[in-house]
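hey m, so remember when u said the tokens were messed up on ur end? i reran from scratch. heres the input so u can diff it against urs
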Amino acid sequence: QMQLVESGGGLVQAGDSLRLSCAVVGHRNSDYAMGWFRQAPGKEREFVGGIGWSAGTQKYADDMKGRCAISRDNTNNTGTLQMNSLKPEDTADYYCAVDPIHRPDTVGVEAAWRYVYWGQGTLVTVSS
């Protein structure tokens, strides 16, 4: 059974950077797509960014473009979300999610329904 273990959340100031990590445990290879989502108090869950089976396939939410980068380490089966120039409105619980099913390219990494496994979430708080 695959499990996702997230780390790296915390309290930072506006303008700071933060790196979140997602360790994929219990999966013998790196054949999966990984997405990052967030949910602020009282708001819907929203897509942050994602990376497909091929690291060349990446997509980011409009308000995160230029401020974040997703990478994956296939050797260690981990993914990272690097966020820069953080704003108070970035405050949320951040979740990584993994889809081990090789879907058609028409299914984008931003589609939350595709993800089978989800992490427990890590809180990011950005103070002004």
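this time it looks ok to me. The chain has a mean pLDDT of 93. if urs says something different then somethings off w ur setup not the seq
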